[in-house]
Design brief:
The protein is of the alpha+beta class. It has 30 helices and 23 strands. The longest helix is centred in the first third of the chain and has 85 residues, at about 250-335.
Length: about 1000
């Protein structure tokens, strides 16, 4: 009982150490669990929302629309649980200028269901549900009416509007009509689109650099009132996908198996079948037109023939009358009555020549007959000309039909192609990466400080430990006094850390997240396993340090323990050997130098602890500086062009004409831009890539004309980069990189994520879905986006060769000789504002699919969530620095109580004692800061390994102001700690402190 009372008395006396260990554990557990819990809560709530609304796992789009045959083929794919055909139409309306919207049919198969926020779901024709963004921008409300105007059908689907399926199957019967929606609309509800969770009412809407929306708004309408048998897309749910978390790799692998099956056979077969349907429909139209023309020509010919027959009968009658009159006259004037009788008895017989001569004479002699004959001949001539012209036109259409109908392209996309989904996932992944990295530093600092505090605590009680051991208490029982002390401090600090980690920090993160995204059903959840392991990790670390301190002391005999610890033998320090410096130092300066460098453990612990905290602050500020400069570096330094314009292949010429006619371009480069994929090639034949998303990256494939390869360097800064140690990279000289026909140039952002370097073999997929293995000739400096540059010749070699995979889906050699340059990189005149306005005006042109202003992208690039987490990390690092300095300062004082008492006896005033002690701490703090600043930069350089995000490369940069802030903050904490230490120094009693232990 006395042992227990003494233990409790000892614990109460060491309350400062108890608070220090508890606070360090609290901060460490909070960092370890807080960021993880916030991201996990967001992941789980979003996954539940996606499952409840049936967000599609796979979406299939086609440049020629999807037919019933396409839908039936998708339903037969192994692994597909549901298929929902969808119809949509782009419309425009007047809202402070021309605005566009997508009329989206609400599916009837439970996929992509909008989430009702206000009002009711539309049920009748003409009723719609709109997003809150539209309500905010338009000022309208439920019950408001709206009139929209359908946009003209795109060139990709216009060819199918009047074509019939004539392939001899039941896949496409009748006429394929493009979707059509009512134009007189009434708003009955406000909904949230599950494909876009951006918060229009928050402080930060979806950042523009990740926005993929082609229209301003989305209107949701019921099937009632929607016409058209052609579908704009098909959405699929995959079997077993709902049971996986949509953000886990297992989900991606499950979906990828189905997308691979669609890409493997269904896509290729249906693309060919759909194009053949269009060709057959076109040929049938031509055949119908020919048959109809032949029928009309036959009717006209019959009419002409009937009129000519009537005309000939009339002329023949006159010929017969004249011939009979001639014969009667001859009989009246003849001498032979028998001849007259014979002539009168029969009609005179005329030979054909005589008859024809008489016909011509009669027609020539009669103006009426002459005009009638001319009219008949003219009608026949016109008919013959019309026949020839029609036949020539139909033959021309037959010849042009094959080239006028482009190759049908399918686009098989998963959730990663949704801008809202990929942006949310990227944000949360980046923050979770930080949450996995920073707790390691907190744990190391906690172990160091615990070792310092507990070692001093055990050393102070060495005589008591010797007494207890001498009285027969076991060493384990004696050590339990300190183990239980450390354990209790860890458990209390860890418990408070769990509260902060699963409630406080997640609540803060989710407030920031909800300013960017709308996440219905969001709630805070506790993870018992992760929370328990978080505390256990710090308990093990602190207890290990305590056990080490106890073992070091208890190895001695009880008699040795009960005697005071012998002072360390005096020794010279290095500074004493530098006579010019040492001889000029004062007495107190020499004492301070000896105290700092003779006690190496205190030196290492103090400098190491302060350096670690300073490094954390620098690292947090480095993230902020890096993110702040990403947009400027990418869109002003790397991208030299001011404008990128993209059009559909059929509108490429019109787009270039439009841009050229505006007179804003000072120089330009025509390129071809396609959306594709880059996969890391496997070993061996280089044909197989890594499975899973970790080995694949969505890219923007940029093909450059052969004659203008050298012009690429004027539009994009080409700088080769090489991988360094710890995630760093070396950047080569500007302009030293050239695009050639020996390989592709891969963006650094994609290369870093996939581990690609110069000389690697990768699998490229172009916009047609054709795959080929390519050589990486160089890696180019690039921070945002994943561009892959390829020459026109190498593009043809990759995707038109017989060795390329899926060559049956590639273009013919005649068609592929000249690529369609569907995009333009241009430098503009004028200010940044005028360039942004010009890009917005171009997007209103029908020939332009997308226009991007680099000036606008540089100004609008934001990463708000990262900034909030940086502020959190810096605050926690500052708190850790304060606790570390407080612990070290109190440990320093407790170790030197007799020394401070001696100084007081010698006549030192309190202020002089303060100066004597605090100067040592300030010097050690400065040394820690000097070491921590470059250490923070080194740790910040490793961010590219921790923040391995799609389409983003963090080129770490620390501004001088950040170093100043970190140094000043640490020194300020040291000064603040002095305010707590000085009263302790004042309370030292010289008489009691100098009493001999014996």
């Amino acid at each position: 009982m006395a042992f227990v009372k003494d233990m409790l008395r000892m614990w109460a006396h060491s309350w400062k150490r108890f608070i220090s260990i508890a606070m360090i554990t609290l901060l460490g557990v909070a960092v370890l669990t807080g960021i993880y819990a916030g991201c996990r809560d967001a992941f789980r709530s979003t996954d539940r929302f996606f499952d409840a609304q049936g967000l599609h796992d796979v979406q299939v789009l086609s440049t020629a629309g999807l037919s019933n045959g396409d839908i039936a083929a998708l339903r037969k794919v192994n692994g597909v649980a549901k298929v929902q055909e969808e119809r949509s139409q782009e419309v425009t309306f007047d809202l402070d200028g021309r605005k566009s919207a997508t009329m989206q049919e609400i599916g009837t198969n439970g996929i992509d269901q909008p989430y009702l926020q206000e009002g009711r779901m539309p049920k009748k024709a003409g009723e719609i549900a709109v997003t809150r963004k539209f309500i905010r921008d338009s000022g309208k409300r439920i019950g408001s009416r709206l009139t929209v105007t359908p946009e003209s059908a795109s060139s990709d689907t216009s060819d199918t509007n009047d074509t019939n399926g004539a392939d001899g199957t039941n896949e496409t019967n009748g006429t394929d009509e493009a979707p059509s929606f009512p134009t007189k609309l009434t708003i009955v509800g406000v909904v949230l689109d599950p494909q876009n969770l951006s918060n229009p009412d928050g402080y930060s809407a979806m950042t523009s650099f990740r926005s993929t929306a082609t229209t301003d708004y989305t209107f949701f309408a019921p099937s009632d009132g929607v016409t058209g048998t052609l579908y704009t897309s098909a959405t699929l749910l995959v079997k077993g996908a709902a049971a996986e978390s949509t953000f886990d790799e297992s989900y991606e692998n499950t979906v990828k198996q189905v997308t691979d099956r669609i890409d493997g056979t269904v896509k290729t077969d249906r693309q060919k079948a759909r194009r053949q349907e269009l060709l057959d429909a076109g040929n049938k139209k031509i055949a119908d037109a020919r048959a109809e023309a032949d029928k009309k020509f036959a009717d006209v010919q019959s009419q002409i023939d009937a009129n000519r027959q009537q005309f000939n009968q009339q002329v023949d009658q006159i010929v017969s009358m004249q011939a009979g009159a001639a014969a009667a006259g001859a009989a009246a004037n003849g001498a032979n009555a028998g001849a007259a009788a014979a002539a009168g008895a029969t009609t005179p017989q005329l030979d054909e020549t005589t008859r024809e001569t008489m016909r011509e004479t009669i027609i020539a002699a009669s103006p009426e007959l002459t005009q009638a004959k001319q009219q008949l001949d003219q009608a026949q001539s016109q008919l013959n000309e019309q026949k020839a012209s029609t036949e020539q036109t139909l033959k021309t259409k037959e010849n042009e039909l094959k080239t006028s109908i482009p190759q049908v392209r399918w686009y098989v996309q998963d959730r990663q192609s949704l801008g809202g989904f990929s942006a949310l996932k990227s944000d949360l992944d980046s923050i979770q990466s930080l949450g996995n990295a920073f707790p390691i530093v907190f744990l190391l600092v906690a172990v160091m400080m615990s070792l310092t505090a507990m070692a001093r605590m055990v050393e102070e009680d060495r005589s008591l430990i010797g007494t207890y051991v001498g009285l027969g208490y076991g060493r384990l029982a004696v050590a339990s006094r300190y183990l239980l002390f450390a354990l209790l401090a860890c458990l209390i600090g860890g418990g408070l850390g769990l509260i902060a980690g699963f409630l406080g920090i997640p609540a803060f993160l989710l407030v920031v997240l909800q300013g960017m995204y709308v996440m219905p059903g969001l709630r805070l959840e506790y993870d018992w396993l992760y929370g328990s392991l978080g505390i256990a990790l710090f308990v093990v670390g602190v207890l290990a340090a305590t056990i080490y301190a106890c073992v070091q002391e208890m190895r001695q005999t009880p008699a040795a323990l009960m005697r005071p610890k012998a002072p360390r033998a005096g020794s010279r320090i290095l500074l004493e050997r530098i006579r010019p410096v040492w001889n000029r130092m004062g007495f107190l300066g020499k004492v301070t130098a000896r105290n700092i460098f003779r006690f190496k453990s205190r030196l290492i612990m103090t400098v190491g602890g302060v350096a670690g905290c300073t490094a954390l602050i620098v690292c947090g500020l480095a993230i902020n500086d890096t993110v702040a400069d990403l947009g400027i570096k990418q869109y002003r330094d790397i991208y030299q062009y001011d404008l990128m314009v993209v059009s559909d292949d059929s509108d490429a010429s019109a787009m270039r004409t439009k841009v050229a006619s505006d007179g804003r371009v000072t120089s330009s480069l025509d390129v071809r831009i396609e959306s594709g994929d880059l996969t890391v090639a496997g070993s061996g034949d280089g044909d197989s890539g890594k499975a899973g998303s970790s080995g694949s990256e969505s890219i923007q494939l940029v093909a450059v004309p052969e004659k203008h390869l050298s012009d690429l360097g004027e539009m994009v800064t080409l700088q080769p980069v090489s991988s360094g140690i710890l995630g760093t990279s070396g950047v080569g000289k500007t302009g030293s990189l050239k695009l050639d026909d020996d390989g592709v140039i891969v963006a650094q952002s994609a290369a870093s994520a996939l581990g690609v370097k110069a000389g690697s073999k990768v699998r490229l997929t172009n916009g047609d879905g054709v795959q080929a293995t390519a050589k990486v000739s160089a890696v180019n400096r690039n921070l945002i986006g994943s561009d892959v540059y390829v020459s026109e010749t190498y593009y043809a070699k990759l995707f038109d060769s017989k060795d390329a995979k899926n060559t049956k889906n590639s273009k013919s050699s005649e068609d592929s000789e000249a690529l369609t340059w569907n995009a333009m990189l241009a430098k503009l005149s004028g200010s940044d504002t005028s360039q942004t306005d010009y890009a917005e005006s171009l997007e209103e042109d029908s020939s332009v699919m997308k226009a991007v202003s680099c000036a606008h992208m540089a100004d609008s690039f934001k990463f708000d969530l990262m900034g909030a987490v940086v502020a959190l990390i810096v605050a926690l690092a500052g708190g850790l620095a304060l606790v570390v300095l407080f612990t070290l300062a109190n440990t320093n004082v407790s170790e030197r109580v007799r020394e401070m008492a001696t100084l007081k006896v010698l006549g030192f005033f309190d202020r002089e004692v303060h100066y004597y002690v605090n100067r040592e701490m300030m010097i050690l703090t400065v040394m820690g800061v000097i070491l921590g600043l470059p250490l923070g930069r080194l740790v910040g350089g490793m961010l590219t390994m921790a923040l391995n995000m799609p389409s983003l490369y963090f080129e770490v940069e620390v501004k001088p102001l950040s170093y100043v802030i970190a140094a000043v903050a640490t020194m300020a904490f040291a000064l603040l700690v002095q305010l707590f230490v000085n009263p302790v120094l004042d309370r030292i009693d010289p008489i009691s402190s100098l009493k001999s232990v014996e």
